[in-house]
Amino acid sequence: MYESYKRRKVQKDIECDIMISDIEVQKLIEDVKPIPYQVINGIKPKVREDKKHLVWSYELQSKSWNTFVVKIRQNTIYKFDFSVILSYKDDGNNLHIIKRYNGIHTHTNKIEKNKIRGFHIHTITERYQEKGYEPEGYAEVTEAYSDWRGALDTMIKECNFDIGNSNLDKFV
Fold this sequence. Notes:
Number of helices: 4
Number of strands: 11
Largest sheet: 7 strands, antiparallel
Order of helices and strands: EEHEHEEEEEEHEHE
Structural class: alpha+beta
Number of domains: 1
Shape: globular
Helix content: 10-25%
Radius of gyration: 16 Å
Oligomer: single chain
Distance between the termini: 34 Å
Strand order of the largest sheet: 4-5-6-7-8-9-10
C-alpha cells in the first residue's frame, strides 16, 4: 500500500522508510472507525508523569482492519494548549499522524511560508514528506472548535468515526 521513501521521523526518535500518498491519506480518513459511545463519554485525561499535561489514548481497529490510535493531550496550566490526534499504525507498528487538531499557538507552514495563529488542523501531506519536513506539518486555521472536546467532536465527524446510533452531541 505504501511507497518506499527516504528515511524520516515518524514519531520522536523513530525513523521509517514509508511515505503515505495523499490518496492513501484520504482512504485512511474515509475508513470507517468504530468507537463505542461509552468510550467517548468516558474520556477522562490523566495527569502525565511530568505533571504538565493531561493525556488520554485509545487504540481501535477500523472496518477494513487498519489500526488507529486516538490521543488527547492538554496542558495543565494553559487549557488552550492541546492536541487531539488521529494516528495510523502501520504493519511495522510505526505511528503516522494523519490529522492533528491543535489549540491556540502560532504555527508556520514551512513550504507556503505563511504564519497562522489560533485553533488549527494539521494533515499529513505528500509535499511535506517529500521535502523532509514533519509529515503533518501543513495546517489550516479553523473555527470549528474552541476546546479539546470540540476538537474531538470535529475529528469524529471529519474522520469517519462510527459511534453507532447515538447522538454525538450528548457525549462530547
